[in-house]
Amino acid sequence: TTEGGGEQWEAGIGIEQLFVQVHEAMTGGAEFAKYEEIDVGRFAGSNMNRKPRGVLRVLAVNVASRLVMGDAQAQAHTLVAYMKEVKADIILVSETHLQQSRVGAKVAVENAFDNLGYGCKCTLGTQNNSGVMMAWGKTGIQATHFEEGPEGRALFATVVTGVGDGSCKALRVGVVYGVSGGDSHSLPTHKQELEQRVNRFVCQEVRRAVERNMVPLVGGDVNSVDNPALDARGTTAVHREESLVSSLLATGMLDTFRIHHPTMQAVSRCGPGGKGNRIDCILVWPSEEAECVAAGIHLDHKLYTDHRTVLMDLDRARLEKEEEEEEVQEGRPQWR
Description:
Layout: H1 15-26, E1 35-37, E2 43-45, E3 50-52, E4 56-62, H2 72-86, E5 90-94, H3 103-115, E6 118-122, E7 132-137, E8 141-148, E9 154-161, E10 171-177, H4 189-211, E11 215-221, H5 228-231, E12 232-233, H6 244-251, E13 254-255, H7 256-260, E14 269-270, E15 276-277, E16 280-284, E17 291-298, E18 309-315, H8 317-330
């Protein structure tokens, strides 16, 4: 199994590849002096049952259109409880089913998170099942300068945290819900046009963030795979250069799961017989100031969705300690 008791190895692979995958699963990441220990079951990839003190943990989940089903307070309680369970600081939610005709539901969801001590921002989609959401713990985290993408399929914010707590700051964080169609080399015209608009917006946000000396981080359901050999199992998924995930990788973004597990086969949306695709992911810009130290897929979550959740830990502790000392000496405010 993978580290932390994860998925079974794929049958039929060569012995050399098997040894490579075993090595990936057992190789530890960066060393930290202190950890928070949790017990939430199995993960594919990194064992996220240990959260290093001071890292920023980002979580992405597709809620399968269930965010507005039932009472908004109950839904917010469910997601916040899960965030606390896995020690996540930020959650990126896709397929909320919040549409332009449901402005009241959007307000209700955002207020429900606010009542629980969490900031929250939702988009309103124009299609069934579309819409995205971002939520964050208000203690030590600020999110500002929001920009929404076409048809509510993307949302970006500048996220900053306090210096000295070991977490990440100066991030441009985005949540996305890609246009579906990863099982065909060509899409219908209307889907092609929408995909181009969404991808153009997302990639432009990434480039602007880099130009402004921020670290882009993008997560959600990209509805596509870049490498079917590793990111698909028993499906007809194909590689398309025009897909959202391939477009993001082309900008220079890194798939956090593949940073640590470059050859491990894994899926995040599961069907009968173990078939599925890894269409849920978190990508980050390569930077010495924000290093991904762990990334995994939660196999045993209890959320009511057919997607597995994905998590990653981002570390800036070493550089932030130096910056904090400089800012204290120079009398500068310890926020950015």
